[in-house]
Specification:
Blueprint: H1 12-19, H2 25-50, E1 56-64, E2 75-79, H3 90-103, E3 107-111, H4 126-130, E4 138-141, H5 150-159, E5 163-164, E6 168-174, E7 177-183, H6 194-198, E8 206-210, H7 217-220, E9 227-230, E10 258-261, E11 268-271, E12 289-297
Parallel strand pairs: 1-12, 2-3, 3-4, 4-5, 7-8, 8-9, 9-11
Antiparallel strand pairs: 2-12, 6-7, 10-11
Length: 298
C-alpha cells in the first residue's frame, strides 16, 4: 500500500514554475531597447509620412458688433505656410485646393510663406491656385521665406488671382455696405506700416488684417483692426504631450496656434498651423491646418 504524505512530492505548478527560464539583465535591457527602437520607428514614420499629409479642417465662428449686416455669415478660408519646394509640391496644392473648393468660401486669405526659398517652386501650382474662386476675392501677403525674390513671388501670386497686400488694403462692397482687407509687410524682412495700410479705409469700417507673424498683434491692436489672421509658427510643428511646442520662431513666441485675444484691446488673433513644413519634414501632434472662419454680427 502506497503511503501519501503531504509535501512528499512537488505539485505540477511548482514544477512548471521552476522550469521557467529566468530572464537575464542583458536580455531585459535588450528587449527594452528593442521596444524603444520600435516605438521610435513607428513615431518617426508617423511624423514623417503620416501627420504631414493629414490635413485638419478647423471651423471657427466669431461675432463682431462692427460687422455690417450685409457681411453676416461670410465664410473665410484661411491657409498659410505652404513652403513649396521643401516637403510640399504642386500635387499637395491640388489636394489642398480640393478641400478649399468643398467649403465654397466667400473669401480666401493666404498669410505668407508660399515657398520655402525659391520662387520657381510656385510656378507649377499657379494654375491650380487660379482655379480657386471666391466671390469676395482672394488675398495674400508675403512671409519671411518669400523674400528671396519678392517681385517674382508677387507676380506668381497675382497670376493665380490673388491680390497681394503689402502695407495696402482693399475695400469689399456688398449689399450697400463695405468691409476692408488689409495686409502688412513681413515683420522680419520687410517694413510693416499699419498707417499706410489703413490710409484708404473709411473710419469705422470693419477691417480684417493679414499679418504673417502673429505676435505683431500686440502692435496692431493699437490700430482700428478688428481681426488678425496669421501663420508663421506652424503651431510649433513638433508638439510634445503636456509640454506643447518646445520651439517656435521669433514672431510667434506668444501666439502659437489657434484663437487668442490681445490683452489690452481684446482683438481676436487666429494663428493657422500652416500647410507645409520647413527645416525638417516632420509634424508631431500638430497636423497641417485649413481654417474656415464664419463672421457673425454680435
Amino acid at each position: 500500500m502506497r503511503n501519501h504524505l503531504s509535501g512528499g512530492s512537488p505539485d505540477r505548478d511548482s514544477i512548471n514554475q521552476s522550469a521557467k527560464p529566468k530572464i537575464t539583465r542583458r536580455q531585459f535591457l535588450a528587449r527594452g531597447a528593442a521596444g524603444l527602437l520600435g516605438a521610435g520607428l513607428l513615431t518617426g514614420g508617423y511624423a514623417w509620412q503620416g501627420e504631414p499629409n493629414w490635413l485638419e479642417v478647423t471651423s471657427v465662428e466669431l461675432a463682431f458688433p462692427q460687422l455690417p449686416s450685409a457681411f453676416a455669415g461670410t465664410t473665410i478660408v484661411h491657409f498659410s505656410d505652404t513652403h513649396l519646394g521643401f516637403n510640399k509640391d504642386a500635387r499637395d496644392i491640388a489636394s489642398l485646393a480640393e478641400q478649399i473648393r468643398k467649403v465654397s468660401p466667400d473669401l480666401i486669405c493666404f498669410t505668407g510663406d508660399i515657398v520655402d526659398s525659391e520662387p520657381e517652386d510656385l510656378e507649377e501650382s499657379v494654375a491650380e491656385l487660379a482655379e480657386l474662386h471666391a466671390p469676395l476675392g482672394k488675398y495674400a501677403i508675403l512671409g519671411n521665406h518669400d523674400y528671396k525674390n519678392t517681385e517674382k513671388v508677387t507676380g506668381l501670386l497675382q497670376a493665380a488671382g490673388f491680390k497681394v497686400l503689402r502695407n495696402h488694403s482693399y475695400l469689399i462692397k456688398q449689399g450697400g455696405s463695405v468691409m476692408a482687407v488689409a495686409g502688412l509687410d513681413d515683420q522680419l524682412h520687410g517694413k510693416p506700416d499699419p498707417e499706410a495700410a489703413l490710409k484708404n479705409i473709411p473710419p469705422g469700417t470693419f477691417t480684417l488684417l493679414l499679418m504673417h507673424e502673429p505676435d505683431y498683434a500686440d502692435t496692431a491692436q493699437a490700430y482700428p483692426f478688428h481681426l488678425q489672421l496669421s501663420g508663421h509658427s506652424h503651431g510649433g510643428q513638433i508638439r510634445l504631450p503636456l509640454l506643447g511646442a518646445p520651439f517656435t520662431p521669433y514672431g510667434s513666441l506668444k501666439y502659437i496656434a489657434g484663437l487668442y485675444y490681445t490683452e489690452e484691446k481684446g482683438m481676436p488673433v487666429y494663428v493657422n498651423r500652416g500647410f507645409g513644413e520647413t527645416y525638417m519634414p516632420f509634424r508631431l501632434l500638430c497636423r497641417p491646418e485649413l481654417t474656415v472662419l464664419t463672421l457673425r454680427r454680435a
